[in-house]
Fold these 2 entries.
Entry 1:
Amino acid sequence: MILAIETSCDDTCAALVTDGGEIRSNVIASQGLLHARYGGVVPEIASRRHLELVDAVIADALERAGSRLDEVETVAVTQGPGLIGALLVGLSSAKALAATRRLPLVPVDHLHGHVTASTLGPERGAPRSPIEPPYLCLVASGGHTFLARVDDPATYVVLGQTLDDAAGEAFDKGARLLGLGYPGGPEIDRLAGEGDPEAFAFPRSAPRELDFSFSGLKTALLYRLRDEPDADRADLAASYQRAIVEALTARMRAALEREGLDRLAIGGGVAANTELRAAVQDLGVAVWVPPTELCTDNAAMIAGAARFLKPLPYPEYLALDAAARIQ
Ligand code: KG4
Ligand code: ZN
């Protein structure tokens, strides 16, 4: 049994997952509302809140799994990338928990977690077969947007990534321009359902083959609102969302063809997007879209990645440091 902790951004998460990838519990305490009034995550507030919540979240994960700490064999934790103060709370808790019981610890790359989310087995009572390599994975979140090739679940190769904003950031910034709330993705998703996606022509910028760029799109929305202040908000949201989804699907199609892959997984918060979820079904390959709680930040995916990595024995991990960036 693996106990995993994830505190890289604004969600305090703990999960219990078996070696075989069965999720016994996956607790996510979202700080979303706390940061909403600032229009984005405030790092200092995030780390303080993690500190207040982390013990209770771990206790809750154990209780929901019907497990005791004695049954935990390995502790896994996000080492980075993320907000350094936020990461440190999870890492310190994980080290303390593991060290007091002389358990091994696995430091996990947050992005590897996202790439691995679809390899997790069914939740109890909800059968769903996990994806197996080789596969292509799109991770599109508020902080990251990249395409990865997975041949071996212990690692991944980045084929392309965003050169500026992440896709989730494009949703969040677009929503702000449209006067919608934060996080913007779900707001645009909802409003887009009432609008015409062909009403406005937004640019689909095409940088290098498998890379993404979203900052031009945001600027195009800004100019459109300046030139046409009374433009229909639902039409704008639908057209803006269409441009993001088409940029993502075009690169996925190109990567699948170039790499000769016929399995696709998507992850990251943007994978919750209704239009994107529908669009990937038309790519002509087998698609794994995890349930939303595995797409957004969570600790089950951290345990998921840890399953394939070599744990560090006690006391080797005591000197580990969090890393805001991971090369
Ligand atoms: O993975 P995530 O929870 O956190 C990280 O950034 O790591 O992703 C959050 C991002 C936010 O930018 C949010 O606006 C976006 O995912 N998002 C969505 C939707 N739900 C969340 N974007 C588009 N459509 C959605 N339904
Ligand atoms: Zn994430």
Entry 2:
Amino acid sequence: MSEPRGGQIVNVMKEERLFSPSPEFSAKARIKSIEEYERLWKESAADIPGFWGKMAEELHWFKPFDKVLEWNEPFAKWFVGGQTNVSYNCLDVHLSTPRRNKAALIWEGEPGDTRVYTYQMLHTEVCKFANVLKKLGIGQGDVVSMYMPMVPELVIAMLACARIGAIHCVIFAGFSSEAIAERNRDASAKLIITADQGWRRGAKLPLKANVDAALEKSPTVQKCVVLKRVGDPAPMKEGRDFWWHDLMAEASDVCPAQPMDSEAPLFILYTSGSTGKPKGVKHTTAGYNLYAKKTTEWVFDVRDEDVFWCTADVGWITGHTYIVYGPLSAGVTTFVYEGAPNAPREDRWWSLIEKYKINILYTAPTAIRTFIKWGDHWVDQHDLSSLRLLGSVGEGINPEAWMWYYEKIGGSRCPIVDTWWQTETGGIMMSPLPGAIPLKPGSCTKPLPGIIPEIVAEDGKPVEPGHGGWLVIAKPWPGMLRGIWGDDERYKIQYWSDVKGKYLCGDNARCDADGYYWIMGRIDDVLNVSGHRLSTIEIESALVSHEAVAEAAAVGRPHEIKGEAVAVFVTLASGYEPSDELRKKLRDHVRKEIGAFCVPDDIRFTTALPKTRSGKIMRRLLRDIAAGRQTTGDTTTLEDFSVLARLRSDEE
Ligand code: WT7
């Protein structure tokens, strides 16, 4: 942590509007009124283990659990002694019901090709690929990384891992080969699954080539499975690389699900933290599965006839929980689109909604702001009347974007669920229940049943009502992370040290007089760019690894579309001079080190950075400068005032 967190938080939001669900919507909903919600929440809060123990009856158990929760702070074990299987709960449970021949997954590729898998068909493919994995020597507890486009095979591979007890680690396809290698090494991945190439806005992404480069620095990875997605020739390394279709052609479709202990790891997913090293967030079997299922049912109020579209990439937690595990365990139809929203034109999403009669759309504020910028005429050409519910995630949604989403996309008839959660929480923690909780634009409203949020000051004591402070979760919940892969110490320090016995999520929030929560942004040095968490230190480390850079500081500045843009301040090593050419080189360097989506928007060269007397960079001051604001905060700890003056005069 490079500077003290917390501090005075000023609330500038003044949102008075209230949108209640229509009586027709509420009548059909699972939870129909605020009274019903409050009863359920109170009941859950009074007996957390009792509440979740009862919910867990909805999963299939090969062996029933003996105890709901074993809490050895900060390590939780849920459904102790029980055995289940996530792939079984997503697929097999539906095969003896009328859902057997219902679409589990509807997919459209960027070029317009489509595929539909029923629950039965998806089961067959998953069993076959599970047998492929076994044949390649993968078994319980082995880590399989995946670097793939948004194709059905990615979902199939994840479920196949779950079926045999292997642990998947999906790496977002925007990451560079350096980032892939770092994750492979940290997770000790044994196998990687990729594709020859991927489609993005008509261009071909070099996925296999990136993996080839990564494998030079991934000593634990022995084999590589390659899906043919695009079709250009791909160099295959004899004995290491195998084509997906060759392996599948010979695989049996009989593969019973392996009974797994409740706490067996299901997946690792890397996210940014406040140090340079990405955190491998660990999620396990039964608790995650239950939490994904129940939150899908409560928040999206899914029905059997729905087509549910979560637009996230499977490479992020939103995709894991609300493209794959939540919808499939709830028996709903999940829709997946492979490509860019403006391929071939800016109305692709609206044409997909019209074509597939999508009922629920779950997306991010950054996408909504982009569509606003592109213009209403793209939306107006399409019939969006199939929609009945809208969702938002990744960052706070500003009231202006909320209203556009509500009126333009939802036709003023669809509730918007503004869902607050994190990679670490496994699933949604706070959100309106659409049939029960009246909406206030910009607020994620109230906690889900079984979730106990509190707002505290730095001393851990509750803040006065209405004041901002640290958001903590006071009681364990089934979807919570079980640790950071290979680093229990970091898990303790990051989440469980600042406030005794409570989970520190890293966001500030306030709770208004109606018990509505308003998220007020991060308390640590983590940016939120297009709904993705980026750690300032990761970007700084990448910059400093370039020979021209002596020191670097990254901060966020407000950005109309992305929420935050990345601004970096760089001091150069001796012998280097500022130039546009060097700027370009540094951008390319970050692209290579971490990935294209982390590339700084602004690079400013400076002769010194503002620091505290103990040598810590004062990012708070840099944030003001990057945003073009007057410095307002306290500068009494600043070591050298002339640095600030020089930074301002360095401004271009
Ligand atoms: C951080 C988690 C899990 C969803 C995708 C991002 C911010 C997320 C909201 C929201 C305000 C939000 C928080 C959170 N965030 N949803 N509805 N309102 N802020 O997952 O990368 O783990 O990031 O995203 O700051 O801590 P993530």
